[in-house]
Amino acid sequence: MTISIxxxxxDPAWDNAAPWYREVALRAAEQALIAAGRTPxxxxxxxxxxxxxxxxxxxxxxxxKAAATNVLSWPAHALAPPRPGAHxxxxxxxxxxxxxxxxxxxxxxxxxxxLSVERHFAHLFAHGVLHLLGYDHETDxxxxxxxxxxxxxxxAMGIADPYAVAxx
Length: 168
Fold this sequence. Notes:
Structural class: alpha/beta
Order of helices and strands: EHHEHEEHHH
Shape: globular
Mean pLDDT: 93
Helix content: 40-55%
Strand order of the largest sheet: 1-2-4-3
Largest sheet: 4 strands, mixed
Strand content: 15-25%
Low-confidence stretches: none
């Protein structure tokens, strides 16, 4: 199994507030890849750990939404499913793309949902990896498939169903 995650820690508070993020990201990526049928789970992922102001800039620039969000993903390959609720084609290689996560938003959401920050981070990281694999939640059928994969990945990590608590 080869999973390479390159972290760019733009907000140094990540290292102080969440020193566990590297281990959790690796486990979440591995389980998301396995849940999506990518075995052996191989991936190269670049991760930006930032603050709300930076992710707000990225969200505005790439999605036209001038607000902070918890996670953004930029797939390396266009992997759209052939129809709603179907699995996308597998990526042609291990290069999956980029993920950005905002510490303040993740901490706030975790507090509001009565979750540990580590658990919420694991969910969002798995969610981001599935986006890199071409999954989305634009239709009900796509959301059902993606949420099922998230449940499977997180369950393998000993984390309860995130959708029984709240929706991301």
